Amino acid sequence: MTRYVLEEKIVKRDQRGATPDPAVLRVAKANLNEHMLYFNWLFATRSWLAGDIMTTADFATAAHLSTLDYLGDIDWGKAGETRDWYSRIKSRPAFRTLLNDRVVAMPPQKGYADLDF
């Protein structure tokens, strides 16, 4: 799902004559909503994605969510448990440096780099 959002919103921006396909973005948004419901359930039942200890799965998932958060595509108001987990991940020193990355001519959504949002 992340791939489609990035292709439509970022990659197509740099291709001559290409424009984002609203139908693809609608389907991706619907899929994101379903994924966020599942993530909320997971984080309501455990501390980390795969259980009681942090794994690379947490960082991989956080990287995907970070790109969607940068673009402002995540409604954090409907994702309380996932928001709390993501806040813990983005507060880690290894992840904080990623929050400084920028896409040329596309600033992040307000609050993207805030550790407590």
Condensed summary:
The chain contains five helices and no strands.
Care to describe what's here?
This protein is an all-alpha fold and 117 residues long. Helices cover 56% and strands 0% of the residues. It has one domain: Glutathione S-transferase Yfyf (Class Pi), Chain A, domain 2, CATH 1.20.1050.10.
Number of domains: 1
Q: What is the 3D form?
A: globular
Report the uncertain regions.
Answer: none
Percent of residues in helices: 55-70%
What is the structural class? mainly alpha
**Quaternary:** single chain
CATH architecture: Up-down Bundle
The CATH first-level class comes to: Mainly Alpha
Using the coordinates shown, work out and report the CATH topology.
Glutathione S-transferase Yfyf (Class Pi), Chain A, domain 2
Mean pLDDT: 94
Distance between the termini: 24 Å
* Sequence of secondary-structure elements: HHHHH
Q: What is the C-alpha radius of gyration, as a whole number of Å?
A: 15 Å
What is this structure's SSE topology?
Elements: H1 2-11, H2 22-45, H3 56-71, H4 80-90, H5 93-96
Helix pairs in contact: 1-2, 2-4
